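Continuing the series of single-chain predictions for the mutant panel. This is the parent chain; the variants come on the following pages.
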Amino acid sequence: MFLFCCLRLRNRKCDGVPNVGKLLYGKRKNAIHTTSKAKPSVVGLLMQVPESELRQAAWRAANVKELNKSTLSEVLKKYRAVNRLDRSEVVVAVADEFSLGLTSSHYCTLMAHANDNKDYQTALRYWNRACSEKKANEKVHGALLATYRGASRWKDAVQHYNAMLEDKITLDPYALHTVMNACRRANACDVAITTFSKAVRSGASPNSAVYLELLRCMQQLRKPNQWKMSLEVLCSIEGKVDLTAGHFNATMATMGGALWTKGVELFQTMKTKNVQPSKETLSTLTLLNPNNLPHAVQCVAEAHTLGMPITDAMYRAVLTNLFRLKLDHEAVRFAEREFGKCNEDPGNPVNASISLSLAIIDGLLAHNRPQEALLFFSTFETRLGNVVGSATRGLGTIGLRSQRWIVQGRVAVVDHNVLLDPRCESLFSHYDSILVPFSSIRLLVRRVRELFGTLKGRYTKQRLKRLQELTADQSTPMRVLPMAHQLIAHTYIVDGPITSESVECLRETAREKKDEDEQLREEQRRLTESFFIRKRDALFSKDGFVARVCGSSINEGADVAVVVKPGETPVVSGSGPVVLNSPDRMSAPERVLAVAVMLKSLNPDSNVHVVSPNPVQLQVVEKWNQMHPAIPLTMVRYPEEVTLKAPAEEQQQQPSFDRSNEEVPVTKKASCDRVPWHERRPLFFPS
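Parent structure:
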């Protein structure tokens, strides 16, 4: 049997059938099975080891003499690239145990890494250690200046740089740039220019970045004939350093107002010298004369020709001029055309429509004719709904125009100045509900962008993050008014919502045709002040009457007649704003006033307070109370008058012991009239 099996296997071999098992798993002469002799480096090991084993791995590497100064420098740079300052400190602690000694390069890397993480105390600690070990060279001094700049200690930076000049320490140009940039961020441009002059006299050689910072300081200084000095500096550095678009932009920005034509000439010179324009070049050129509509439109066309992105400031200038000239139909056509160009190449970031959407939002908030602004808003409501969140850092919404805000009790309408105060959360105990206008949030978001890199900009950004937490919590009484309701609120102080009474006034005016001009002149002589028909005027007062307005028929867009009281001058609604100080735009205090007036009109039983530390805001409210006593608003100067005009619940419920026993029940009864806000129904419920 065994012989038969062997013969059978021999026959298979002779048949020519390949042995698959041998081909797959048998030894082949051309196959070399060797293992790699390369071992992981110390840098790779310390980068990949877990956090819990990092100290032990670094200790083993230092024990076998594999962690030396060069390896430590490479490890610190790798950790900075991945932003792991905690791991760097662990490795440095192990290096100190083995007395490896840190070099100036190590200290420079550690301080720069700490500056990246805004951990300025750690950076100063390494600076003090470098000084104690006498390892502070020019690079470490530069890292210290960067620490002072990040910590907004510009005075310390200037003092340290002046001491270095007196000690004749060799510095690179970027140290001077750091000091000047710190001064410019703190709005101390005159100190920056003085430091530049002192450094040049001491033998410093500025580079292109330093000259750019100098021109920006001169731009921000805003002195008379500053454009001449900027132009002289630009001409003097030509040929010495490489000119960029930033140098021309800073010089061009000093030529605003009546000198805007010189800015246009400088832009043409920039194109002649083949200097590539930046994203801010055409925006700066537009802002030289933003009230000139042809100039703004030409800048937008130039951006399309050069294939450059258009900023929201450029779009805002065009739309603002069109609204000011009452060319809202042209503004709609312009926006439709620009949206069409953005949709031609959706993937191209140059054609992004977010800049146009932001400009439309800002333009509608400043529109001086709210009814036309609402028509414009309804045209682009769908497109704006996708941008409102990013325009307000997630705080605002688009809203529904069919809803109204129902509030009760004591209501506070705050402006952006109150939101910047970290103590504003104390208002929760003083008010049943707090409403933040949409325009105030948008103003703060624009300020964060304009003040990017400054201490004020970082603080404003921090306050917006805190507002996100407060508004997201449903238990807090703070809410942000949607954009649609903000635009509707503007109608309450300019045009007034159209009511059935106003339509009847128009019909009555159209039927009476006899002696209209004479009656109008007589009434204008004996009347002094007017107010518009609003939803509150459901019933006319006994001493009120309807002013006769010229016109034989009611046409579309006709002026709304007004109800006036004796001693008031009739003004036709639509002929011009009454409350607005500027006829071209609605200012920020007036937008806050509009929200308060809307809340008071829709909720006459509530007590609406306008809380602001800005005296201009309080003056606007006082002017409104004088012109419209039927809708009284309470002015509250923040924070002095908050406790006086809006006492907290604890203050109301606390009895006064210095009074007689008969007065205590009266105090308790007064405190029971107001129910705590957390026991009421949900606030700001839109119906």
